[in-house]
Amino acid sequence: MRNLFKKPLFLLLINVIIFLAACIRSDERLSRKYHLISEISRDKESPFYIDFKHYPPDRSALPVGVFDSGTGGLTVLEAILCYDQHNNRTHVPGADGIPDFASEYFEYLADDANMPYGRYDAEGKSDFLRELVIKDVRFMLGNRYYLLPEDTLYQTDKKPVKTIVIACNTATAFGLETVRKAMQEWGMDIRILGIIEAGSKKALRLRKGEKKGVIGILATEGTCASGGYPRTINKFLPEYPEAGDIKVIQQPGIGLAGAIDGDKNYIAPDVTGVRDTDDYRGPRIGDPRYPVDTTLLREYDFDTTGNNLLVETDAEGRWKRLQLNSVSNYIKYMVTSMVVKMLKQYPDRPLNEVILGCTHYPYYTSEIKAHFLRLRSLEKKYERIIPGDITFIDPAESLAGELYNHLQRKRLWASANNKDSRFFISVPNVLLPQNQLDSLGRFTYAYKYGREINQSLQYVKIVPFSSRWIAAPVTNRLKKNVPCAYRLIRGE
Predict the structure, then answer these.
(1) What is the pLDDT of residues 432-460, one digit of tens each?
(2) Residue 319 contacts by C-beta under 8 Å, 6 or more apart in sequence?
(3) Residues of the chain with CATH 3.40.50.1860
(4) Into which CATH architecture does domain 198-395 fall?
(5) What is the mean pLDDT of residues 289-305?
(6) CA atoms of 115 and 69, how far apart (whole Å)
(7) Does 52 score more than 60 pLDDT?
(8) Maximum distance among all alpha carbons in the chain?
(9) CA–CA separation, 291 and 314 (whole Å)
(10) CATH fold of 24-194+397-489, please?
């Protein structure tokens, strides 16, 4: 017995025990920090409670869950719906003209009431963001929803899911590991897939034969602050030696996701003049973090028609205050800011690939590309860093591939074609006295980003998608840019 203590096997056993104990302590700390995790599985009086002991045993018949902070994640669902890389009968690689997920059905959640997620970290609320992601996952696993936000009785005919896709880059960056650990504590073997790994791997795969270059990340403020993409790219870089010598540069699209989804803090279609400071949260002249540089007006090339750009001048006619008020101008600001940053940090490297690290951005790939190429045409210094064949990467297709591999590996394919996909959206809970709403019935900015974790409050009601909650311009965009998902929304 004395010799056993000298053997490497015993030391390995001790290390494993220490590691497992550390994991248990880590999970306990996680539950203590986020009370919601234990509340979901243990508190039968909680509106968030789920009886995991009775989770459906036949997982293959369940839908795939997809969630995002808004409608942007529908670009990910569209990529999944259109994915055709295998023979559906044999699962051998090679397109057969039938989408690979043709037999599957889906449940989609847009946490529209709490969007944009990209702002929480900047407001010091990254923990509250993680709690929102826990609630998103809980909705996917549960069966409850409401028909209307004023309803007191919930419906229970929603089906739980067999796997979860986090379409939102910011939610993945801040919440993926948290909800994976929560899933372990709940004793659930439901796989959660995040989009950042998929996008990073695709960017590295595309870099064949390049000696040196830059991978650009256009993402929300929160995703950039998390460092999720640079960290993940560097993590997988050793697996792709052909990628060469690369650097990573990030540019937050401050306000762009909110503008695309019509958040009035960033865009107000009906205004005709500069708004009060508290009503506008986008880039501005003199902003310490995201300033509009008036020496770059030629580069920005802002659209000044109509009310797309709100400007206040001084007595000499100089621009004193400026507010972006169109998606196009937010895009021009974001792209110009990245190119100027590139010129300072990597003036002798080409920006070969740009990852569209927010699910809202692929809606506007052509506009983003057009402004990059316009800057390229302005001067030699821009031409040097912007290739004519600059590549834009939507991580959604790679994520669809990871979902396919998971369903195939676990034999989770549905046995018949399904047409009853369902779409849900969060709206403020009008019955919660604590909620502070504006004239449009949305959370005020200060309240949205001032909430604390562990309040056990039902801030939102999750209801079915309808034109009541989706603005007409957003609906038109969906019809044009995600036609397959749009048809499912309409039940076609």
Answers:
(1) 999 999 988 999 999 999 999 999 999 99
(2) 285, 294, 311, 312, 313
(3) 24-194+397-489, 198-395
(4) 3-Layer(aba) Sandwich (3.40)
(5) 95
(6) 5
(7) yes
(8) 92
(9) 18
(10) Rossmann fold (3.40.50)
